[in-house]
Amino acid sequence: MKVLDAEFVQGFIRMANDGFLQGWHERNGGNLTYRIKPEEVEAVKEEFTAKEWVSIGTTVPTLAGEYFLVTGSGKYFRNVILNPASNIAIIEIDSKGEQYRIVWGLVEGGRPTSELPSHLMNHEVKKAASNGKHRVIYHAHTTNIIALTFVLPLEDRVFTRELWEMATECPVVFPDGVGVVGWMVPGGREIAVATSELMKKYDVAIWAHHGMFCSGEDFDLTFGLMHTVEKSAEILVKMLSIRPDKLQTITPQNFRDLAHDFKVSLPEEFLYEK
Ligand code: 2HA
Ligand code: ZN
Predict the structure, then answer these.
(1) Nearest ligand 1 atom to alpha carbon 207
(2) What is the pTM of this model?
(3) Domains of the chain from N-terminus onward
C-alpha cells in the first residue's frame, strides 16, 4: 500500500488540518507525532528508503526500533493537507534509542519537528504508563490557554481546578488534571525532561506563554482532549473578561457527585476549598 493511502496517514493529515482550522498553528507553530503500529509499518514499508542516521539529542531506549509519523521542522500545518510528502515524514528509531533516520517523506528536504526530544520522551512515558495504548503526542499554540498563563498562578492545582469549573464535561474528559511548566527555552532536552515528568501524571502539559502538549490513544481522543481543554480556557477568558469573580460555579461537592455518577476518580488535591 502507498503511504498516503494508509488510514493512519489520512487520520494524521486530517488532524493537522483540523488544528490549523482552529487557529492553533500560525506559521510553523505546533507539531504532531504518531507511534505507528507494527502492522501499519508492514503495510507501507515497501515505499521506504532510508536516509542517514541522525542524533535525537536525548536517549529513548524503550522506543528502540519504533517508527513514527512526524511533522517537519519549520513546516506549516496549513500545507500538510496540500502536500503531505513534503511536510511530514516517517522516521525509524535505532536499536539504542539514540538516533533516528527518515525512511519516507520530507521529499524537498528538512528534519523532523524541532520538538522531537519532547515528543519522543513523552512517547516513552505514555507508552509505559498506558500499557502501550497511547500513540499520539500533539503540541499546539492554543490561544486561550496561553493567555491564562499570564494571569493564573503556574500551578497544576489552580489550572486544573479553574478549567474543570468552566465546563461540566472537563473533569470527565481529563480526570487526572493538567500540569504546568514555567517558561523555558523550547526545542531542547531540558524542557523535554520537565514535560515528560508531568506526563507521568497527566495527559496534558501546559507550557507557560507558549502552548500545550496532549497525549492520547488515537487522533480523535488526542484532538478532542486539546479541543476540550482549549474550549474551557476560552470560557474562562470570557468569564474573566466580564468580571473577575464568579456569582456561582461548580462546587467541590458537585465534582464528587459527578465523579460518582460518571465513574471517574477525581483527586482530592484539586477539590480544595477556596
Ligand atoms: O515551531 O511549535 O515549539 C514549532 C513549535 C516549537
Ligand atoms: Zn511551540
Answers:
(1) 3
(2) 0.98
(3) 1-114 (3.40.225.10), 143-264 (3.40.225.10)
